[in-house]
């Protein structure tokens, strides 16, 4: 098991996956558990996670994400949706507009790190046609697609990605 700092440092987007290695059910379960362990506003967990294993559905998801082929190639895709109405019931407009989106995003971020800890790879996909996904995947009314994570065993060594100097993002006040 990697420690937390190592896990974060080892996370890089993976866009090529081993087609011969499925994602084990126990690993997927552990990843989903970590997503659901993330903090959320009022502990309401105003999100839903759709697990997409079916080949045709993954192909369609890839098409709806500007034909990003790796989504179809990865054996699993997780679609994170926010549930604004759930957050709105307790927190009004702030819950609807902000908290539900944050809840779904944090859950996806936890899942992405759990993927690395489990020896798998993923890419966070934010570019997709959310309205069409709602229709094609008959999402429950009110759910808003926020992010897709493609998940599988890496078939590439990803290049290190640079980061801006911390001082550009961090201000001491
Ligand atoms: C909000 C968001 C949207 C993203 N959308 C896409 C995407 O549609 N397609 C893709 O290949 N990568 C996407 N990425 C991955 C980023 O390109 C990647 O995280 C960034 O270049 C840094 O590389 P690294 O993940 O290897 O550190 C997205 C990441 C985030 C956080």
Task: Walk me through what this model shows.
Helix 2 (25-36) crosses helix 5 (84-117). 36% of the residues are buried. A four-stranded antiparallel sheet has the order 1-2-4-3, with helices on both faces. The chain is α+β, with helices and mostly antiparallel strands and 173 residues long. It has helices spanning 4-10, 25-36, 55-64, 70-73, 84-117, 130-136, 166-169, and strands at residues 47-52, 76-82, 121-125, 144-152. The mean pLDDT is 97. Helices cover 45% and strands 16% of the residues. The chain starts with a helix and ends with a helix. It has a single domain, classed as NADH Oxidase. Flavin mononucleotide is lined by residues 12-13, 15, 68, 123-127, 158, 161. Residues 12-13, 15, 68, 123-127, 158, 161 line the site of flavin mononucleotide (FMN).
What is the fold's blueprint, element by element?
Layout: H1 4-10, H2 25-36, E1 47-52, H3 55-64, H4 70-73, E2 76-82, H5 84-117, E3 121-125, H6 130-136, E4 144-152, H7 166-169
Antiparallel strand pairs: 1-2, 2-4, 3-4
Helix pairs in contact: 1-5, 2-5
The structure holds flavin mononucleotide (FMN).
Flavin mononucleotide is lined by residues 12-13, 15, 68, 123-127, 158, 161.
């Amino acid at each position: 098991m990697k420690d937390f700092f190592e896990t974060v440092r080892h996370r890089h987007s993976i866009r090529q996956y081993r087609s011969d290695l499925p994602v084990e059910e126990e690993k997927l379960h552990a990843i989903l558990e970590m997503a659901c362990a993330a903090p959320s506003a009022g502990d309401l967990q105003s999100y839903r996670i759709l697990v997409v294993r079916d080949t045709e559905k993954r192909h369609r998801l890839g098409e709806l994400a500007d034909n990003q082929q790796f989504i179809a190639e990865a054996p699993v895709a997780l679609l994170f949706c926010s549930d604004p109405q759930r957050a709105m019931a307790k927190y009004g407009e702030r819950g609807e507009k902000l908290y539900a989106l944050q809840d779904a995003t944090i859950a996806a971020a936890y899942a992405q790190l759990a993927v690395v800890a489990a020896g798998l790879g993923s890419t966070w996909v934010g570019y997709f046609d959310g309205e069409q996904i709602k229709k094609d995947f008959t999402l429950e009314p009110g759910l808003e697609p926020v992010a897709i994570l493609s998940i599988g065993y890496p078939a590439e060594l990803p290049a290190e990605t640079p980061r801006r100097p911390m001082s550009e993002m961090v201000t001491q006040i």
